[in-house]
Amino acid sequence: MRSFFLVRHGEARTVDEEGVIRNYTGAELTERGIRQAQALRDYFQETKFSAVYASDLKRSLQTAEIVVQGRGMQVRTDPHLREFSVGQLEGITVSEAIDRYFPSARNIQSPADFRAQFSLQGRFPGGESLSEFEGRVLKAWKRLVAAEGEDGPVLVAAHGGVNRVILADLLGLPMEMEGLARIDQDPAALNLIVYVPREGMPDHGIVRIINYTPYSPTKSDLGLDRFIVSMLKGRIPTA
Questions:
Q1: How many Å apart are CA 53 and CA 126, to the nearest integer?
Q2: What whole-number distance in Å separates Cα of residue 186 and Cα of residue 163?
Q3: Is 60 exceeded by the pLDDT of residue 24?
Q4: What is the extent of the structural domain holding 140?
C-alpha cells in the first residue's frame, strides 16, 4: 500500500495590497499562512516521509519546507503541479481584469454566478482551459505516483485547483467548474490518498481523508467560498 498526503499551501496573497493578481508571481505565505503550515508540521511530527514534492510556486514550496523543517529532506519541485493559469490576468489589478475581460462580472453576486460565467468562456484570456489544466495535473500526478514505491508516505504540497482535479478524478466527479466546486480545499488542508494493489488489476486510489485542517479541526475560523466574490468586488482577498 502506498500513501500520499496531498496538502494545499497555507494562506497567501494571490492578490497583493495594490490589488494586483499574483497567481504565478510573488505570492508568499502570509503570517497566518505560516502558522497554518506550522500546524501541518506539528501534525506530521511523527510521520516519516519517504519523499516530498511541491509545486514550484513559492507559496507551495514554502509550505512543504516548513512541514519538513529540520529533517534534512530535499523538496522536489514540479512546475506541472502549478495552479490553474490565469494567463493575461497575471500582473494586472482585479479592477483592470474585470474592465478588460469580465465587464459583466460587476453584477455577479455569488461563486455560482462566477462559475457559470467561466464555463461559458472556457478559459481566462491567454490561460488554460479546464481540460488543459486537468491533463497537465493528472499526467504529473500519475507520473509521481508511479515513481514512488512502498518505502513510506509521500508529501505533496500543491494548490486548491490542483488538489480538486486530483480528488475529482479519484472520486469520479464531473471535471467541470460545478463538479470541482463540490470539493472544499481550505488553506493548509490535507488529504490522504492510498493506493492498494489488487492482483491482476491496477492500483486503486482511495481517498481516506479530505480537507482536514489541523489548525482548525472544526473549521471554526474559516470563511468558506468567499474568495471569488470578494475578488470580483475589488476587495483584496487572500487564498
A1: 28
A2: 11
A3: yes
A4: 2-232
Distance of alpha carbon 221 from alpha carbon 223, whole angstroms:
7
How many residues in total does the chain contain?
239
pLDDT band for position 51 (50/70/90)? very high
**Is 135 inside any structural domain?**
yes
CB 180 within 8 Å of CB 165? yes
| Residue 52 maps to a domain | yes
Q: Is residue 239 part of a domain?
A: no
Domain count, the chain: 1
Query: What tens digit of pLDDT does each residue of 160-207 get?
Result: 999 999 999 999 998 887 788 889 999 999 999 999 877 655 667 999
Rounded to whole angstroms, the Cα distance separating 209 from 189 reads 10
* pTM attached to this predicted model: 0.87
Amino acid in the structure at residue 160:
G
Decide: helix, strand or coil at residue 171: helix
C-alpha–C-alpha distance, residues 22 and 14, integer Å: 5
For residue 41, the domain's CATH number is: 3.40.50.1240
